[in-house]
Amino acid sequence: MRAKSWPCSEPSTRSGIQTLCDISQFWSGVDSFLWLIGEAIFHMLPVCICWSVTKKMGTTQSLGIVLGLTLVSGQLLNAYAVASTAAADIPKWDFGFFTINMIGYQAQVIPAMLAAFTLVYLEKFFRKICPAVISMIVVPFCSLVLSVIIAHTVLGPIGWKIGTFISDIVYAGISGSFRVVFGAIFGFVYAPLVITGLHHMSNAIDMQLIADFGGTMLWPMIALSNIAQGSAVLGMIYLQRKNAAAQEVNVPSCISCYLGVTEPAMFGVNLKFHFPFICGMIGSAIAAVVCVATSTTANAIGVGGIPGILSIQPAYMLSFALCMAIAIVVPFVLTVSVGKKKGIA
Fold this sequence. Notes:
mainly alpha; two-stranded antiparallel sheet
């Protein structure tokens, strides 16, 4: 794991530019205080993931929480400190004839997912074979202990390597020689991914990028795709400005899209007419090209659409604002132009 992304209260060295936190003690204090929340979210992420998996799979959620806590316990070497710690200095559980590294998995997605699914299937297995009279004791104990052992001996190290490999590949695509091509493809295909539900996989990649590189260049393009689809709906609002019935769907869909929720806009408007959806994809691709060309990076994920600028690192807010303008103007102009030719009203 690479360097940790600290709050902006740490003095900026980028071209001698000072942040608001550098020049104002009040905002420095606010930033430091709010980092309590940020640290809880990212450092304790495995807890949330393990709980979520057990809830989704219908097994004991409290066991998932405990498993997640064993991955981020204060007894373990913090994952952010592993890279700067010599191999000989990493603490170990010593069982005499073998040892296990005491390494935490703060902010790690894949190790937590692998551990959680192991817990789920072990619990289901033991519930199936264990007599009901002793299941209350045997099932939780055996499921949790075996899951923790497997997590720290096998799944954790493997998951870490997989996660790092994926983030390295994506980061190379975003920052390498062909990053413009990568950006164009990602910006164009993200909206169709939303239709299939496959877009959820990007969250894990984003989290891994944040953990490994202190920020993600993927999330800004996702936010721009939201805006682009909303702008296509805005074009339909203009084209159908005299159609009161259509506006009852168009206006709320556009607003929700600009706030980061694209499904109402895509399924209720853009896919219905087809061409606004394509116009939004084109605008998203162009905005994504500018986004990766300027290395626009977000500190976190979660805030999409226009509010997505709040998650952008201060040094890139201006470039993201430019990308937002592209994502607003291009789909709107294309949708209106194509719509007029088709006689949409």
